[in-house]
Amino acid sequence: xxxxxxxxxxxxxxxxxxxxxxxxxxxxxxxxxxxxxxxxxxxxxxxxxxxxxxxxxxxxxxxxxxxxxxxxxxxxxxxxxxxxxxxxxxxxxxxxxxxxxxxxxxxxxxxxxxxxxxxxxxxxxxxxxxxxxxxxxxxxxxxxxxxxxxxxxxxxxxxxxxxxxxxxxxxxxxxxx
Length: 177
Known about the structure:
- The longest helix is centred in the C-terminal third of the chain and has 19 residues, at 119-137.
- The two termini are 26 Å apart.
- The protein is mostly helical.
- The chain contains 11 helices and no strands.
């Protein structure tokens, strides 16, 4: 039940000593379309930064939960280390959570991160970036980041997100799902 009192009770579980209880609370709050649920998740993310750095699974759960809220104010937090993070699962969760926002700002965040990333590192990140970019743009410029950058430079000012998100197929679809 999505109600402020229910959200508050579930949010209390974020402070539980048992990791499974905390992860269940993260999952529940991520699926509750209520501003208090997002606020509780965001507060937990800030408070638990050090612990989350050591716990990849919980960090991935938290990123996904925050991303599910599709809140534009979450883009800044989601984008921190989105491409630079060494842990694949965390990087993938951050990139996909950004793309899941389905806004021009989300696309801008990913493209900006790509331009700031060293080319060799960026090439190795295209596995998770490509499905996110296809989901946002409805186009597929392939695995080469230079193709995406050229396309973005030529289309940035006139680009509009497709009204409907495309169905991703093949490897991109498998990774996205």
